[in-house]
Structure formats: C-alpha cells, structure tokens
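Discussion board: Methods & Data

I've been asked by a reviewer to show the raw model output for two of the constructs in my manuscript, not just the figures. I'm not sure how much to include, so I'm pasting the format here to get opinions. Each protein appears as its amino acid sequence followed by a line of discrete structure tokens. Is this the kind of thing reviewers expect to see in a supplement, or should I convert it first? Here is construct A:
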Amino acid sequence: MGSAEAAGLTPLCFPAPSLTNSKRGDENDSAFISPEAALRVEKAGAGVTNQKSEAAVYQLKVSIDGAQPPLWRRVLVPADTTLGELHRVIQALMGWHDNHLHEFEAPRPGDTGSLTRRSRWDYRLFRSGTDPSGEPLDWIMDDRQEDEDTAVLADVAPCEKSHFAYIYDMGDHWEHKVTVEKILSAVPGAAYPVCLKGKRNGPVEDCGGVWGYEEMQEILADPAHPEHQDRKDWLEEVYGVSEWDGAAFDLAAVNDRLKKLRRSG
C-alpha cells in the first residue's frame, strides 16, 4: 500500500475545530528523523491517518511557479504548524534570506478550485503583522486579511490535494505553490520539519523573479556575454561566490537550515 489513495483514504481531511499548537521541543539531533527514514515510511504507505491528531504530519510539495526546469522541495511538517511557522520553513527550504514581505493566499473553505485566473477577492489572505526586521507593518487592510501566526495548516489545507500559495518579495513576486501530498502519522520521537527531496538550487534574491533568474543563469553560462563579469561580481558581493550552479540541490544543507525550526512529533 504505497499511498493514501491505495489505502482508500482520498481525500484525507481534518474535521473542525482547529488543532492546538503543540509545545516546542528542545533541539535534539538524536530525535531528528533522517530523510532516508522518512522516505521509508512514505514509500511503505505506513502511518496514513484520517484521524484528527496532534501527531499528524503533512507531506507538502513546495514548488516555484513558472520555474523551468521545475524547482521544488518535498517536506514533512506537523499538521498544527501555523502559517507564520511555515513561512520560516519555506525560507529555509529555498535558501531565502527573509529580506522581503510575504503573504499566503488560500481558497476559501469548501472551495477546491485553482487560485489561478481568479480575482484576488475570491480567496483568503494571510499576512504577518511585522516586517522582516520585526517592525510593525501598516498593511492596507481589508476585511479578508488574516493573521498568519494564528492560522493553522490543518485548517487552511484540511485535505490531501489541498493547495495554496506563498508569495515572497512583492517586487520579484516569487510565487510558491504549496500542495498537501499526504497526511501521515508522526514517527514517535521524531522531530520536524524535515526535507525529503528536492530539485535544483534555490533562486537568488533580488534578481528579478523567475524570468530574471533564468536570464542571470544564461549570462553566467556565457563568458562572452557583456554582463558576465558584472553578474559574477554581484554574486561575489551578495553571496560570497562567483559561480552559481542552478542545477545543484544539497539536501543536507537544507536540513541543516531546518534544524532550528524542529520540534518533536
């Protein structure tokens, strides 16, 4: 039984009311479930649950919209993760620096339609009350704006195949599609979040969004391009490197960034 579908539990949903947030555990690498162990659980189809439980874990796929070749991460997070916490998880997954504003956009309860080709007023909007430096934000308020720090993942995306968007940097507009692939039982004593797999290097900050990132990689790959040296100098100044491998994906580095966000399952 390799999936929730095979178990006859599609779509799995959490009933209301929302889950309460569990307490943070001490950072302890001995309690950390390795990506290899997590994958064994996933591939075996073990732990699939359709019960409301604080021990439930969401398997999410986070992909950057419009990126070619595809750029994505697969991660396990507790079902009671708040969107504020998920923001920090996605930042770590992609290697973002959290220098810009962000927001979440999700379908309204009972609406399973796509967020694309829809009016902004048709979906829920979740935002932080502070900017990346911690200063209070004076957003242009509207009656649908909600606090990401009180919104719980299991409520916003209650079923397998649920999806929503995470937007980072309102200028470059990096849109991440977040999809619930599976709802599983937590491994006793394990700590989450943990990244299982991914494709390609995380993008570069302030490069102009998806199209600017593609252009940057093309310029860096062409030593004869008139902007080649300027781009290398910029990378050296901002990232401390003069070369950028867009195809590289370092699972260990991603999980190292996730360490400070972990809590026991």
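Construct B, same format:
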Amino acid sequence: MIPQLRHPLPARARAWVDSLAPHAVADVTPIGGGMTNTKWVVHLVDEGPLVIRWSDPHEWGDTGREHVRREALACRLLAGSGLPVPELLGSDLDGTTAGGPANLMTWLPGRVRLDRLGPAAITNWARLAVAVHEQPVPADRWPPAFTFRGSAEPAVPTWVRWPSRWRRAIDILNAGPPSTSQGLLHRDFHLDNTLWQGDGVSGLVDWAEASWGPSDLDVAHACSDFAMLHTTADGEAFRRAYLEQGGRLDPDPDAARFWIVSDILGFLRTRLTSSLLWVPAARTCPLKSSDRAWKTCLYRHSPDLDGRLTPPHPWPMVLSRRAGRQLKLIALALLLTK
C-alpha cells in the first residue's frame, strides 16, 4: 500500500484539542511510521507534547470508530496500573465535537527499536507482555473478543513452491481454535508499537485493537515480528522469556501450533506486494538485499531446499522494511508447518 499524503488535522479536531489541552497549543503535526495516517503530535507551549488519534469518518467509517473506542477502553482499563501506556485526556467516540472519532492522550518518551534485541531487552519486553495479560478486568468491562486476521477462507497462494506446507497450515486453522484461557490482549503487540529507553520499555502504544483472547496471540505476533525482522531464534527466545517471567501459554502443542499458524496466515489477507510502503532511503533496502535475506532464512531452516528459489513476484527496485519482513514471514510459515 502506498500511503496517502499526510494532511493537517482538520479545524474541528484542532479546536477540540485546544479545548482539552492543559496548555496552549503551539503546533500539530502528523506522526510518521503508521499505516492508517490517523495520529498527530500536539506540541504545547509550556509542556511536553500530546497525541491525538483522529479518524476521518468518510475514510475509516466504523473501523475508525472502533479503533478509537478500543483504544479509549484500554487506556481507562490500564489507568493507574503502573504500566507504560498513554493516559487518556479526552475521547469523542462519535466525533460529535471533533468531526470524527478521536482520542487525546499523553505522549510517552522513548524510541522504536528495530535493531536486534539482547537478552535484557527481550526479558523486559516479555515482562511487559506478562503484566498486560495478567491485568484483572471485570467481566462487564471486557474489550471485544479477538477476531482472526485475514480471509475467512484462506487459500494456498498461487506463487508458493511448497503448496502442501501451506495447505497443512490452512488445515490447522480450519480445525478451529482450542479452548485456551483468555484475558486482556494488546492484539498488535510488535516492536513498532513499543518505545524504549536503552533496554527498558518506556511505552506500549497503539491500543486500537485491544481485545479479549488468549495471550498466545500476542506472543505469536511478537514471535512473527522477531522472525521477520531478524531470525526465528529471536522469536523462540522471546517465547522462553515470556514463560520464565510467569506468562501462561497453552501447554498443548497442538494448541500452540494453532495460535502460531493463525497469526502467520493473517498476513495473507492481502497480496504480498500490497504492503509495500515507500519510506525514506535510510529505511529501504535494494532488491538484492531483501531477496538474499529471504533466501538465507529459508536455507537456514529448510535443509531440504534445492537452491532454485525464485521470488514469487517481480519486485520493485526498492523494497520497504515491511516488505522484507513479510519475506521472512513466509520462511517462518514454511518452518512451522513442516
């Protein structure tokens, strides 16, 4: 997907922010890095910045409203928990005042890390995941139940060289979910939504998909992220750290396989090429680099390969980081569904 051009916050939303901000607003600028183009940073005159999520009702409709509702609910549920999550300063779920569904929140310090994490950082991230999943939530305040990403009837991609492995993954998913215990989920738990100060986690943001479901889903998503960014060993290290920090995952191997496969197949919801993001040159990689990473990951974990791999599509001359990650996701799927 080629992202839309960034646009200024609409006047009604800006007026809503002005009415809630604790100090005068100096400027409002778009936040880069996301796929929805619905977040802006609010610069204040006398204090640190704030963040607004504003969803254009004409573009995002019910989806945008649901993102705002879930994020507001999660911020309220976790207020006072001591976890590094944004504080909700105001919410306009129907967009009556802001002209579209909106949340105004505090800005959290830190930066996104996409470098390979060491043991201390992995442990800290796993500890945060455990803390989120252990949060007590009264039954009348549960967020909506999780839903599966991707097609309701996934099909084996036409470009794969080992269709039997993909078919097995789809068969695992079609068998239906196991009766795994459930709790609070972030539901988009990956490194792009995590802020760091050194090896310490300073923020977990973007709660737009907060759900009620098995902790296995958040852990599987984190493992996929590690595998796509770096190696499957990093994902395995995170899973071990999660359990060492007291996290609970379904002990049934078949159940574990189901949740992992369900996360992987969720990435097949669109064509591989549709997720290409054109980003600054510092965050892009040339064709040969991505293709080599894809092949290297496959060779490392699939000794039976014959060395005659070819990319599934003709690639553009420049691939984004996310495209490279999806190449590695394919490798992870092949590895886990042997």
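Answer (T.O., handling editor elsewhere):
This is acceptable in a supplement if you add a one-line summary per construct. For B, something like: The first strand starts at residue 25 and ends at 30.
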